[in-house]
Specification:
Elements (H helix, E strand, L loop, with lengths): L1 E8 L9 E6 L3 E8 L4 H16 L7 H21 L7 E2 L1 E7 L2 E7 L3 E6 L2 E4 L6 H8 L4 H5 L20 E6 L5 E5 L1 H4 L4 H10 L5 H11 L6 E8 L2
Antiparallel strand pairs: 1-11, 2-3, 3-4, 3-5, 5-6, 6-9, 7-8, 7-10, 10-11
Helix pairs in contact: 1-2
């Protein structure tokens, strides 16, 4: 049995919400954080959801199939931008999760994240495609310094911005009691991994997605905030 919660908030600064959340059969969960001029971000993230949903109606849906779905979204956004000048340069992150036969399959582009919370420990599954993540990997700055870096919002890879897109994928086995969290960077730019772990551990509300969004708002997140929480074997 799986319980799922989702929450999204425009935040305290933005004029519109460019994030898109999606939950659809067969056990697919998705967060997309759009970017682009005017309404471009909303268009890109919404088109990514629509395209990926259309591409994932048949099983199996393992790493190759999820990668192909993201690539289809990439082409759809590029085509939309080519035909509508006002959307030139738009793009979106995509973090995509599918559960099947006690396995978690995922695909990822950008700086939205997938976390696994198991036995009290929180693990970031995806790697951010961002300038600061690259600097942290090289040892040039610390993870704490990355949170306040002036270029912390600069991503190095997005869906819909280039023809030759590289999509990260992976798979891992699930255990009863696992919690999986998909989120846009509106959460992680304000709430540390330790604070996320504390909310998951200490907050008594069942709806941890809403609790995490509220925590980000309390810490004055400067971005849209979107969270999907999947409780496996609950």
């Amino acid at each position: 049995m799986t319980k799922v919660y989702q929450a999204s908030d425009i935040g305290k600064v933005r004029e519109n919400n460019e994030d898109s959340l999606a939950i659809f059969p067969p056990e697919i969960y998705m967060v997309a954080d759009g970017m682009g001029g005017r309404a471009g971000g909303e268009v890109a993230s919404g088109l990514a959801v629509k395209t990926i949903q259309a591409q994932t109606t048949k099983r199996p849906l393992h790493e190759a199939e999820l990668r192909q779905a993201v690539m289809a979204a990439n082409e759809a956004i590029l085509a939309m931008a080519r035909s509508h000048q006002e959307y030139d340069g738009m793009g979106t992150t995509v973090t995509l999760l599918h559960l099947e036969a006690a396995m978690a399959y995922w695909a990822h582009v950008g700086d939205s994240r997938l976390y696994l919370f198991r036995a009290g420990a929180l693990q970031q599954i995806t790697r951010d495609h961002s300038l600061v993540a690259d600097l942290v990997a090289k040892g040039s700055i610390t993870r704490e310094e990355a949170r306040f870096h002036p270029q912390r919002n600069m991503i190095t890879r997005a869906v819909g911005t280039e023809q030759d897109l590289s999509v990260d994928t992976g798979v891992f086995p699930l255990c009863d009691g696992d919690t999986l969290i998909l989120c846009s960077d509106g959460l992680t730019s304000a709430v540390t991994d330790e604070e996320i772990r504390q909310v998951l551990t200490e907050n008594r509300r069942d709806d941890k997605a809403a609790a995490l969004v509220e925590r980000a708002l309390a810490l004055d997140s400067q971005d849209n905030i979107s969270v999907v929480v999947v409780c496996y074997g609950a």
